[in-house]
Write a structure and sequence with these properties.
Blueprint (H helix, E strand, L loop, with lengths): L1 H20 L3 E4 L5 H18 L2 E7 L8 H9 L6 E7 L4 E7 L9 H4 L6 H11 L3 H8 L7 H4 L8 H24 L13 H34 L2
Helix pairs in contact: 2-8, 5-6
């Protein structure tokens, strides 16, 4: 009898923990890391308690049945009654998206900034110089920066470090959304990451700046060389 009660308690505990883990880290087919799970749950729970907004993270191996990521998010959204924001990543499809319901939730965070493939204003300005198709295009590209997910996902990872890249980038984005909502609502999140989640982004910036400065140096050096060659040939 004692064994049966103990077994029942264990089953109930496991069931409770499984239910709890599915609240804010809603789907995880990639990481399976208890520490990562706990951090997402802790931040998501506090945000929900203080704002009534459920921020849920979804990470899947591949989108099902040929769906695009927005269609998939809309299907998931049917499971929720309370105001919900989904941050979704599909590994095989290389897609990241944020969907909010109701749409009024977009007022509390900057989706374009969070999903920008560019981390810094300098990087955005440099890209605008090379890839613009006119002044309007230049302004559009130059003003699109501050991404906290895609710049990290785009990094090459060594063997065995891919899951770390996924967890770091997705938690960066998750925390960014949560903190922007908190700022918009005028509340303080005790479990906020703050500037700590920008450390990995800083590495991306430093490496990028180094390549850009080196490229500019070579470009100027080449221009000076060609100008001297032209002058000497006259």
């Amino acid at each position: 009898m004692k064994f049966s009660r103990g077994l029942l308690a264990l089953i109930l505990t496991l069931f409770f923990n499984a239910s709890l883990s599915a609240q804010y880290l809603y789907k995880d087919e990639l990481i399976f890391n208890p520490a990562f799970n706990a951090e997402v749950e802790k931040l998501g729970l506090e945000l929900h308690q203080k704002t009534g907004i459920a921020l849920r993270l979804v990470m899947v191996k591949e989108l099902p049945n040929g769906m695009n990521i927005v269609e998939y998010e809309n299907e998931l959204m049917k499971d929720f009654d309370s105001p919900t924001i989904l941050l979704t990543f599909s590994e095989m499809d290389s897609k990241v998206d944020i969907l909010a319901h109701p749409a009024s939730l977009y007022e509390y965070f900057d989706k374009k900034q969070i999903l920008s493939p560019v981390a810094s204003p300098v990087q955005a300005f440099t890209m605008a110089l090379f890839y613009n198709e006119g002044f309007d295009s230049f302004k559009e590209i130059a003003s699109s920066y501050g991404g906290t997910i895609i710049p990290l996902l785009a990094q090459k990872a060594k063997e065995g470090e891919v899951l770390g890249k996924y967890s770091g980038s997705m938690f960066n984005g998750y925390a960014d959304i949560a903190e922007q909502i908190a700022d918009s609502k005028g509340i303080v999140l005790e479990n906020a990451v703050g500037n700590a989640n920008q450390n990995s982004i800083l590495l991306v910036k430093v490496l990028f700046y180094g390549f850009i400065l080196y490229g500019i140096f070579l470009y100027i050096k080449r221009k000076i060389y060609l100008r001297r060659e032209k002058n000497e040939s006259k």
